[in-house]
Amino acid sequence: MTELYLRFKSSVFAVAFSITADYQLAEDCVTETFVRLAQVKKFDPKKGDGKGFIHKIARNTALEIRRRHQREYREFFIQGYGDADEIVENSIFINQMLKNLTDKQRQIVVMKCCSELTYKEIAKIMKCPESTVKSRYRKAISILQEKAGVKSEK
């Protein structure tokens, strides 16, 4: 379990943060995700790393935590900690860009780019067709490119 935690804590945090938009709630979600994973009887780490399964638990946990806290999650901010000004500036820029996406688009982008999940894995997690995930991802990337002033290569 320790190995799984070390391997997936940052991507689970990214998924949780994309949903909760709150640093502390995302941290709580990471902890809760691995507590729930430890309680699952059918999970067998020997059958693979379980990346999709872990991220599905993380997404469901984050959605539950978000509902429980009844906050307004349209605003999407990263709280910068530490001395790395460039990292903080990049985080702010990325989060400002992500504000232009819908919740589902933002979740898909984070799962695809940060967690490196496949379209198929994301579709299973979000309970929608793979083609829908692909089209939402392409639309999200198009929006991000447009807002960033980048010409898309078609």
Description of the structure:
This protein has 154 residues and is an all-alpha fold. The protein is built from 7 helices and no strands. Mean pLDDT is 78; it is low at 71-83. Helix 2 packs across helix 3 and helix 3 (51-69) packs parallel to helix 6 (119-126). It has one domain (2-148): Butyryl-CoA Dehydrogenase, subunit A, domain 3 (Up-down Bundle), CATH 1.20.140. Helices cover 69% and strands 0% of the residues.
Quickly list its features.
mainly alpha; Butyryl-CoA Dehydrogenase, subunit A, domain 3; globular
Specify the overall morphology.
Answer: globular
* Mean pLDDT across residues: 78
Largest beta-sheet details: none
Beta-strand share of residues: under 5%
**Number of structural domains:** 1
**Per CATH, which architecture?**
Up-down Bundle
Rg from alpha-carbon coordinates: 16 Å
* Strand runs, count: 0
Give the CA-CA distance, first to last residue.
Answer: 44 Å
Helices, by number, come to 7
Q: Give the helix/strand class.
A: mainly alpha
**What is the CATH C level class, in words?**
Mainly Alpha
Low-confidence stretches: 71-83
CATH fold-level label? Butyryl-CoA Dehydrogenase, subunit A, domain 3
User: In sequence order, what are the helices and strands, one letter per element?
Assistant: HHHHHHH
Q: What helical percentage do the residues reach?
A: 55-70%
